[in-house]
Design goal:
The complex is a heterodimer. Helix content of chain A is about 30%, strand content about 25%. Chain A is an alpha+beta fold. The model of chain A has no long low-confidence stretch (mean pLDDT about 95). Chain B contains 4 helices and 7 strands, in the order E-E-E-H-E-E-H-E-H-E-H. In chain B, helix 3 links the parallel strand 6 and strand 7. The chains are: A alpha+beta, B alpha/beta.
Chain lengths: ~150, ~110
């Protein structure tokens, strides 16, 4: 992803547990705002970032001891690039999940209680890339600022 | 996790005193909601005005909270901040719940 911008970078890593992820997402969102992430994009970034990090906690480290999740953010004039890395299990079939929306046109008792995460990420991020590399996962999320909200 | 409940006539208002409902507290939220909603209230309104963030696990816990209400009672939501409302809209859950800008709006409209 782009190296042709003057990077204003920040990073954070924490053990991949739900409690640490919850605090980490709040910390990172506050730091991104302080570094000048446009207010109009702040909510989109926070929602997608939380889903991506929660996926690492819930899936990549499912059934194994949770190690670190590392998040590197580079804020450019016209975009934000986020790289999330972990040393957990690969994504199913080594690729990004589809992200079909969970159906809500159902009876009350059939309403979905999960399966929203990738649908949210795919709606909010401008670009998403995934690679399995060196026994770890790399997920890139890009948010362009020039789009109308 | 910090819920308080107030019964006014046939309406129960449950207020969330927590700045986020996310994966770290989704299970606790659902259990606390189960305990709080063991009442005869015909309508339950959840006041989310203090909630600054919700993720898909928190959303799932709110859906579960409605499903576990007895007698098919609905759960109405009030006081959603823009980021919370956005999660409901993007998942189309805004078509499942009745959303009110404020608790006052929710109470003025009443149950159906």
């Amino acid at each position: 992803m782009g190296s042709n911008c003057k990077h204003d970078c920040l990073d954070l890593s924490f053990p991949a547990t739900q409690a640490r992820a919850s605090d980490g997402i709040a910390t990172l969102s506050a730091r991104l705002a302080a570094h000048g992430l446009p207010e109009s994009k702040a909510d989109d970034v926070k929602i997608a970032l939380a889903e991506a990090i929660n996926n690492v906690v819930e899936h990549a480290y499912a059934g194994i001891a949770p190690a670190e999740v590392q998040i590197d953010c580079c804020l450019c004039k016209d975009k934000l690039e986020i790289r999330i890395t972990d040393t957990g299990s690969p994504m199913p079939d080594m690729r990004l999940p589809g992200g079909a929306p969970a159906p809500v046109d159902t009876r009350l008792q059939d309403l979905p209680e999960g399966g929203f995460g990738w649908h949210l990420i795919r709606q909010l991020a401008s670009d998403i890339r995934y690679e399995r590399r060196d026994d770890g996962n790399l997920l890139w999320l890009q948010f362009d600022f020039n789009e109308l909200p | 996790m910090g819920l308080s409940s107030d019964l006014t006539g046939e309406t129960q208002i449950i207020s969330v005193h927590c700045d986020r409902i996310d994966a770290a507290m989704a299970i606790q939220f659902k259990e606390d909601m189960r305990a709080e909603t063991q009442t005869d209230a015909k309508r339950v309104v959840l006041d989310l005005s203090a909630v600054e963030f919700i993720d898909s696990s928190g959303l799932g816990a709110i859906v579960a909270s409605m499903k576990q209400l007895e007698d098919g009672r609905r759960l109405d939501l009030a006081g959603l901040r823009p980021i919370v409302e956005k999660v409901f809209r993007l998942t189309r859950m805004d078509t499942v719940f009745r959303l009110f800008a404020s608790l006052e709006d929710a109470l003025n409209i009443g149950a159906d």
